[in-house]
Design a protein that fits this description.
This protein is 38% helix and 23% strand. The chain is an alpha/beta fold and 472 residues long.
């Protein structure tokens, strides 16, 4: 089952997509990677979905990536007397550590880390920014605020603190327990919420110990300020536009999205654009024209993947949402302007052997009009370097590692096939031709560009480029 597009689709599983039939339908509609959102559902729920995905993978003989998304710390106010209260614009409001129920003048904020970080002038956003307050006086256990924008304050509403880096680990006790569970299951990717600094990613990498790839979700302004460092430490990046749009002006988010995508393209790391991409399809069988344009813009920008959240997890039209996203991507990639934009933003190769070979492979593929670029990779690094070039032809990624083939399901343009371990380059050429034929990526008489490293099995050793004819 080969996709007729190069950008990939992530689909979130949930109540609307929990049966084998539903998940299989999402896969056939175009989902390449499935997201298990650990903010919701029990371990039993996630294990069941994991097992169903692996059964569908075996049935279709295609590697499927599975991403676990850690919840991260949730900063929330305490309870409010009567469930909610009206906070007046222009008035004052106090947050403190007192566990008593809140009222129109104060509420509990059970996070001493916030009080340790805020200062006079710090902005506090409540309920996704519907309420906006500014600190005018503060101490180690309280913050007196001016109410800039008031409204209804209800129990347990979320709080955002966009102006400061909070002295808070992005990994809660729940996250650590979830992480152990997910790694034991065998997830391929772990997404980290609430990333503020490179040290956060390093902490997660140490806990994972190489058992999965790391995606840093960028949803804090502090993370954008250290974008390059965080990208260097991560295996992939997710543009989490929901919280970004709360913590910074919405008009800034499109430019930030382009900046993140460009940084990931330069570094050769996959980048996922997420949140509210086809939001209206939660309740409607068709998206708005603005949503279709939003998905298309991410693809024109060069994103490796786009993600569906509530659309497939809890919406009424999950399969239709994936099908629509699939059609939008295919349409954009047929547009001559798409190739012009990708080429205009092409980053220069880095001064390494495998970058030089990857750039040459893309150039040879263009000059000779080959059917595909075939890469043999143990770790997947060679595939990502070729994907960085955004070649005009598909990338056939051959690997003996099942975990690598699953992880590469997120990479732009990569069609992954697991093969037996090979010892000689001549075997590699024969295998490349036979697999390209069987996967309908080439026909007899076509040419392939083949890249590999000698000795085999050494990550980052790509040093051979070969043009081969496909024969019967």
């Amino acid at each position: 089952m080969r996709r007729q597009r190069k950008a990939k689709i992530l689909a979130t599983l949930g109540p609307a997509s929990s049966t084998r039939e539903q998940i299989a339908a999402l896969f056939k509609a175009g989902a390449d990677v499935f997201r298990l959102n650990f903010s919701h559902g029990s371990h039993e729920d996630h294990q069941k979905r994991y097992e169903l995905i692996r059964a569908i993978e075996e049935e279709n003989k295609r590697p499927i990536g599975i991403l676990m998304d850690l919840q991260g710390p949730k900063l929330r106010v305490g309870t409010i007397a009567g469930g909610s209260v009206e906070v007046k614009t222009g008035g004052t409001f106090r947050f403190d550590l007192d566990g008593a129920q809140g009222d129109a003048k104060r509420a509990q904020l059970p996070h001493p880390e916030i009080f340790a970080a805020v200062q006079v002038g710090t902005n506090l956003l409540v309920d996704d920014g519907r309420l906006r307050l500014r600190v005018k006086n503060c101490g180690k256990d309280f913050a007196e605020c001016d109410v800039l924008v008031g409204g209804k304050l209800s129990d347990r509403k979320g709080v955002n603190v966009p102006d400061v880096v909070l002295p808070l680990s992005p990994l809660t006790g729940k996250d650590r327990e979830d992480l152990r569970f997910g790694l034991d299951l065998g997830v391929d990717w772990v997404a980290m919420s609430f990333v503020q600094r490179p040290e956060d990613v390093a902490e997660l990498r140490k806990l994972i110990g190489g058992r999965a790839k790391v995606i840093a979700k960028l949803e804090k302004p502090a993370a954008i300020e250290r974008l390059e460092e965080i990208t260097d430490l991560s295996d992939a990046i997710m543009v989490a536009r929901g919280d970004l749009g709360v913590e910074m002006p919405p008009e800034d988010v499109p430019a930030i999205q382009k900046r993140i995508v460009a940084a990931c393209r330069k570094s050769g790391k996959p980048v996922v654009v997420a949140t509210q991409m086809l939001e209206s399809m939660v309740n409607s069988p068709a998206p708005t024209r603005a949503e279709a344009s939003d998905v298309a813009t991410a693809i024109y920008d060069g994103a490796d993947a786009v993600m569906l959240s509530a659309e497939t997890a809890s919406g009424q039209y999950p399969v239709e949402a994936v099908s629509m996203m699939n059609r939008i991507i295919e349409r954009v990639e047929r547009d001559p302007a798409y190739r012009q934009i990708l080429d205009a933003r092409h980053p220069d190769p880095q001064p390494t052997g495998h970058d030089a070979i990857s750039a040459a492979a893309a150039q040879v593929a263009h000059t000779l009009s080959v059917a595909a670029i075939v890469t043999y990779s143990t770790s997947g690094s060679t595939v990502l370097r070729v994907a960085r070039e955004r070649p005009e032809v598909p990338i056939l990624a051959l690997t003996a590692s099942l975990s690598t083939s699953r992880a590469l399901s997120l990479a732009w343009g990569a069609h992954c096939v697991q093969i037996p371990d090979l010892k000689r380059f001549s075997e590699m050429v024969e295998t490349a031709c036979s697999v390209a034929l069987s996967q309908e990526m080439a026909k007899v008489g076509d040419r392939l560009v083949i890249t590999a490293g000698v000795p085999f099995g050494t990550p980052g050793s790509t040093n051979i480029l070969r043009v081969a004819w496909v024969e019967e």
